[in-house]
């Protein structure tokens, strides 16, 4: 038989145990992210462990005038970004195509150009792996209507078993609440439809209803109002890129030598691109003893 005293002791023990459990769970629970200070910088990176918007005091980018061979994409993206910064309608943009042809460089350069024109615009970088947390990020951005945000995801693509694409819809469509009016989304990808072509064909050929097999994923790219294609550069464009870098950074080399070494460099890489041009220039500048201010 349990006495009243025993019951009180048991109740006290149970209460103490529950308190300890509650305290342990509170310690395990992630802390709420601090309210972002958007006046701290013009650029931020969204981090998830713990969740926070990390200010970036210095953005690694090149001047927009040094991006060669992408004139049409440059002008289109600049105009779209300028409209958004002014509070006018603008489209989400997908920059797709050849590797190393300046897709991400153009996004960062366009942001810098808009800032140089005296228009307020913040850029927030979001990693593809962090897409599941994008709804919480949008909550922070929506709560700061006095600022306008360019949300940027570099190298975006999905595999057949990747469910992250569902989170992307929160950015492109916004669900029931809609995309925040002060947020625009830019993404870069090597794939026009954000997924491998062979995967699209394989799933269509093996599906009961081929036309609907991958429609949900492929339709993601259709939700971007702007599609800007980037294609492999010509040899002349490749050389123009290098000459532009040399002029901008004060590297003086005889034209004949520059041409011969640049061609040899791209031959050893087996490709031409803006990235290969920059890599050659960095090597050339080092050999010439010229420091590069990035």
Helix run count:
10
Instruction: Give the overall form.
Output: elongated
Largest sheet: 7 strands, mixed
Looking across the biggest beta sheet, what order are the strands in?
2-1-4-5-6-3-7
- SSE topology string: HEEHEHEHEHEHHEHHH
- Give the strand tally: 7
Low-confidence stretches: 206-210
Q: What helical percentage do the residues reach?
A: 40-55%
Estimate nothing, just give the exact number of structural domains.
Answer: 2
Give a quick set of tags describing it.
single chain, 294 residues, alpha/beta, 2 domains, seven-stranded mixed β-sheet, 7 strands, 46% helix
Polypeptide structure, described:
α2 crosses α3, α8 crosses α10 and α9 crosses α10. The protein has two domains: 188 residues, P-loop containing nucleotide triphosphate hydrolases (Rossmann fold), CATH 3.40.50.300; 53 residues. The protein has a seven-stranded mixed sheet with strand order 2-1-4-5-6-3-7. The relative contact order is 0.12. With 294 residues, it is of the alpha/beta class. About 2% of the residues have low confidence.
